[in-house]
Amino acid sequence: MAFERVCALSDVPENGSLRVELSDIDLAVVRFEGQVYALEDRCSHADVPLTDGDVEIFDDAPTIECFLHGSCFDLRTGEPTNLPATEPVDVYPVQLDGEDVYVDTEADGALPAAAAN
């Protein structure tokens, strides 16, 4: 695993998201109900940034919603929870070290992971 610092925890709004542009991937770093998640910042259906959407509970799952067509993605697994999206987005392991958020972008993208505040 190769964790790299992507932002400060204070940069990510509670119950919200932050877009982090790295050299090889754009991440959505999401804080929701005391957990921090990292996933690919691209809707698998419409190819638009997920960070433009709302973070909320949908069908008992913590999700981020694509603003364009309303598909929601489970923050834990990247799986879509409703149509029109049918393909998951990649999720990445997160670690917190004090106020710093670290993400392992070299993981295979299919690992459900979150870090608690």
Percent helix: under 10%
The assembly state of the depicted protein chains is single chain
Q: Supply the helix-strand structural class.
A: mainly beta
Architecture, CATH level 2? 3-layer Sandwich
In the CATH hierarchy, the third-tier topology is known as: Rieske Iron-sulfur Protein
What would the average pLDDT be, to the nearest integer? 92
What is the percentage of strand-forming residues?
Answer: 35-45%
Give the overall form.
globular
Indicate the radius of gyration in whole angstroms.
13 Å
**Domain count:** 1
Low-confidence stretches: none
Query: CATH class, please?
Result: Mainly Beta
Q: What count of helical segments does DSSP give? A: 0
Distance between the termini: 21 Å
Q: Can you count the beta strands?
A: 11
Task: Output the helix-strand order.
Answer: EEEEEEEEEEE
Characterize the biggest β-sheet.
5 strands, antiparallel
CATH homologous superfamily designation = Rieske [2Fe-2S] iron-sulphur domain
GO molecular function, one term: dioxygenase activity
Domain Rieske: 4-103
Keywords: 2Fe-2S, Dioxygenase, Iron, Iron-sulfur, Metal-binding, Oxidoreductase
InterPro entries: Rieske_2Fe-2S, Rieske_2Fe-2S_sf
